[in-house]
Amino acid sequence: MQARIEDLLPVEYFHVVFTLPARIADIALQNKAAVYGLLFRASAETLLTIAADPKRLGARIGMTSVLHTWGSAMTHHPHVHVIVPGGGLSPDGARWVACRPGFFLPVKVLSRLFRRLFLEGLEALHRAGKLAFFGDLSKSADPDAFKAHLAPLRKADWVVYAKPPFGGPEAVLAYLSRYTHRVAISNHRLVSADAGTVAFRWKDYRIKRGDRMKVMRLPVAEFIRRFLIHVLPSRFHRIRHAGFLANGIRRDRIEKIRRLIDKAPEPDRTTEEDGRTAPDERDLCRACPRCGGAMRIIETFTRGETPKSRAPPWEDAA
After folding, report:
1. What mean pLDDT, rounded, does the chain reach?
2. pLDDT class for 274, splitting at 50, 70, 90?
3. Is residue 45 part of a domain?
4. Residues 149, 200: one domain?
5. 149 and 206 both lie in a single domain
6. C-alpha to C-alpha distance for 1 and 181, rounded to whole angstroms
7. Which residues does UniProt call coiled coil (predicted)?
8. How far apart, in whole angstroms, are the C-alpha atoms of residue 9 and residue 285?
9. Higher pLDDT, 62 or 211
10. 135 closest CA partner among 212, 288, 51, 30
11. Whether residue 177 sits in one domain with residue 39
12. β partners of residue 96
């Protein structure tokens, strides 16, 4: 936590979640290291690529990714939570490029690129013989059967969810402190346990309204099985950093970004007490494109606001 405090920037932070479809989750359960590693790489590359697009943000961003493999009922539900500062370095590294307030990147665009990158990576793992298949999935060892298994996923919508922005760097730290070392179930969710069953609270997300919290009772063997499927391979890192937050360059990049943010010019327009945008000196001395005379601002209003002036001043004077 101390290390993360030193990395926090005075900017808005965003929270993006990448989730694997159920057909992929089944493969991941039998190939944890390979598929979870691909999930990290594909999600990070998706964000880095879209953010670098000049039509989007046009900047080199950084991120911290945290792997979760469980749902509320301890079923297998692999997904990564990605925490991203709201901006990045310009391509030449000379300035900080901030995103729009409250908006980072379009989730539909992220979803399509994530789908393509992940499926390409999964096929590459299969060709390299790095995937194993057992039980109902054993037929997927055959290349044609594997392609047929993935075919429905090429047109399906993949879940990429952008949560509301964090309330500030302090909220990011609070999130990390709660979730980075969490296991499949915490003690406070346990209701009871005896020689035959274990009862615990879970949230039913299928219920749109009302109380989602329920109590599930499982045989001890099934409870232990569900818990153990979330044990990660030995030495597998479930927290990873990419972009300007990557290990090895993070400290230098953070110091540079702080200097750039401190030097960033103030916005061209300031906000008055009534919430309207005040004109700067360049607006006040703007010349008329027809006669060349100085133009005078009659009224300033925000986007979506109806102007109060119903007629030009020369008509009122007449």
Report:
1. 83
2. very low
3. yes
4. no
5. no
6. 11
7. none
8. 38
9. 62
10. 30
11. yes
12. 89
